[in-house]
Write a structure and sequence with these properties.
It is a single chain. The protein is mainly α. It has six helices and four strands. It has one domain. It is about 55% helix and about 10% strand. The longest helix has 16 residues. The radius of gyration is 16 Å and the shape is elongated.
């Protein structure tokens, strides 16, 4: 059996936008933090959460990144390639670049022989191998 987490649950928890629902969410996330239950967070949901928090709720980038990094350290939250995702969020927290670019950087950093094909010269500021097709 697989348990998944939806965007609206993350957004409600991180924004506290519904006090009645937040009481239940707090207990739910406490159990995830302690590892009493396990739930998978899909990357598409993570990216959608970032988009909604940034565009709809206008939460600052650093606050979003910090909150999500904290959540990803909960024992019960499972994310594929968690190290890459945490690195992506750290880059996004530190640098003024788009989240998808941070994801690409985090992916490419793990293997120095990898090549990123892109026309975006901003990647040249980082220690990666970028080439134009």
């Amino acid at each position: 059996m697989i348990s998944l987490l939806d965007t609206n649950v993350l957004v409600r928890f991180l924004t506290l936008d519904n006090a009645k629902k937040y009481k239940n969410l707090y207990t739910f996330f406490e159990s995830l933090e302690r590892g009493e239950m396990r739930i998978e967070l899909k990357l598409i949901v993570l990216f959608q959460t970032i988009f909604i928090l940034k565009s709809v709720y206008q939460v600052p980038r650093k606050q979003i990144a910090g909150g999500l990094m904290d959540l990803l350290n909960y024992k019960g939250i499972v994310v594929k390639e968690k190290k890459i995702v945490l690195r992506m969020l750290a880059l996004w927290h530190e640098k003024n670049i788009e989240i998808v670019d941070c994801y690409l950087l985090a992916c490419i950093e793990k293997d120095p022989l990898s090549i990123l094909y892109s026309y975006d010269r901003d990647f040249d500021k980082f220690n990666i191998n970028r080439k134009e097709p």
